[in-house]
Amino acid sequence: MLNTIAQGTDSALPPLLIVPGLFGSARNWGVIAKHMAKTRRVVAVDMRNHGDSFWNDDHSYPAMAEDLAEVIASEGGEMDVMGHSMGGKASMVLALTRPALVRRLVVADIAPVAYEHTHDGLIEAMQALKIDDLTSRAEADRRLSESVSDAGTRAFLLQSLELRDGPVRWKLNLDVLGAAMTTVTGWPELPSAPYDKPSLFLYGSQSAYVKPQAHETIHALFPQAVLEGIEGAGHWLHAEKPREVEAALEAFLT
Length: 254
Fold this sequence. Notes:
By secondary structure, the protein is α/β, with parallel strands linked by helices. The chain has two domains: 4-115 and 186-253, Rossmann fold; 120-179, no CATH class. Helices cover 36% and strands 16% of the residues. It has eleven helices and nine strands. The strands form two sheets. The chain has a seven-stranded mixed β-sheet, sandwiched between helices. A two-stranded antiparallel sheet has the order 6-7. α5 packs across α6. The chain is globular and about 50 Å long.
């Protein structure tokens, strides 16, 4: 089963499952998880090939959705589910194929469409980084800056570099993620009916991931979808505007 980090206790509100995106981890969502755990149980996961979860050559969305179904089954059978980016696509596939497991769905800055962009450059930069003699994250950042210019992106990626326990290593299966990039940026064909329960599509006003031309597809697959922009946020809206994301979650889920 996926590695999980749980906070909070059972309450009248259903538990919340948080599903991170590509290169992300359960710990990336710690601030929002802690806030939401004031009123309910919250479970954040490391996706397969990420963090402390298992590695597997199959990095397809149906496989990731089944991982989430297993976590939900271990938690009692139904949860509210929020997924970001790649995790948002996995959450959508779960809702479309196993709707009984998802009470309400929140999708953060992603749409059920294929994208033309790729993250191959970031994977190549991480693979090329000399890490065997690293002793500090500052030095790792300096080296990574030679191929990744954006400081925020470097900080995000380096959260998955393990420097403390044993040999320095990436807590990402970079070979598999690189091979699966077309799958990750794509969208699977699913022989399923629309998810006809409440769903919220949050997007960053400065992000290009949820374009107007995708709205029709969203409403076709998720007829009860509400789209809400987070002003001033980009793709990593949970890190850039956590208070606004928390407020949107609370309003929708309660």
